[in-house]
Request: fold
Amino acid sequence: MLFNTARFIGPVIGGILIVVIGEGWCFMINAISFIGVITSLYFIHTAFVPNEKSKTSVFDDLVEGFKYSFGFKPIKYMLILIISTGFFVLPFQSFLPVFAKDILNGDSSLYGILTGCYGAGALMGAVFLASRRSLHTFPGYILIAAFLFSGGLAVFSYSSNVGLSMALLIICGWAMIAQYVSVNTLLQTMAKPEMVGRVISFYGMSFMTVTPLGALLIGYLAEFFSIQVIFLGFSLLSLVAAVLYATRKSVVQRGLSQTKE
Reply:
């Protein structure tokens, strides 16, 4: 919730500051803000207890983690879904300036507002999930969020109305958090204790590694197609993964029930 509050407030302020003082000073202010973080890290003191030396190599652990993650069906279907979302849908954030300027005919202020709307939706999604009392409904939230995220982006890609685009980004922000946080929670709940770290590493790849690769592909395709066509196509491909998850949702539900038992 703290993270997404910053995503909601920061871009709006940034968009205004770009107009008033320019991009350079915005980067300077951002750099100065890290002094607080660095100072806080300096005053953190903790002791680490070394683990026994592993008898297997990092590569062996990685292979074992891959076999477990994609061999256990409830986890496999969730990972496939978020990897697809990370590759086809999440990269749109990097191209929001294009939509703000070329599609909606705005400036940096509009870009800040659009990013703020996305952050506001994410904040609402975080609050929504934090208020849930049971994990039983999380597989359903993942399904709803997957369709809303891909479908919302498909409509957003061809929207030329600022108000509609803002509303769609709020929906996309909610769906992004609802999907990713729900999957993260279920992965940590369902995975074997000794496998949690490796399973979560594949989860992290869905946005730390896969998303930049998707952005690179979009940048390449932009030489041949309009950004609207690209994101419409990518959204439809992501919907295919959502449909696959829909057909396997019962498997995830059963896996969660067995884990809780």
In short: The domain at 2-45+57-260 is CATH 1.20.1250.20 (Growth Hormone; Chain: A;). Residues 83 and 205 are 8 Å apart (CA to CA). The mean pLDDT is 85. The chain is about 80% helix and 0% strand.
